[in-house]
Design goal:
With about 55 residues, the chain is an all-alpha fold. It is built from 2 helices and no strands. The longest helix has about 40 residues.
């Protein structure tokens, strides 16, 4: 295997890893954007939830 072939394989693997990491970051951002508002709204709610009242007693 000559040097050019090894370098091209290494670069190809690096691009694959970068693409996978980029995809994971996008999925995490989308899930965070979908889930975080629900958590914030649940904790900021002024309506008492029966389970919360029982937990406070």
């Amino acid at each position: 295997m000559d040097l050019a072939t090894r370098l091209s394989k290494r670069q190809g693997r690096r691009q694959d890893i970068e693409a996978a990491v980029g995809l994971i970051v996008i999925v995490v951002v989308l899930l965070g954007g979908a889930v975080l508002p629900g958590f914030l709204a649940q904790h900021a709610s002024t309506v008492p939830v029966p389970a919360h009242r029982e937990a406070r007693r």
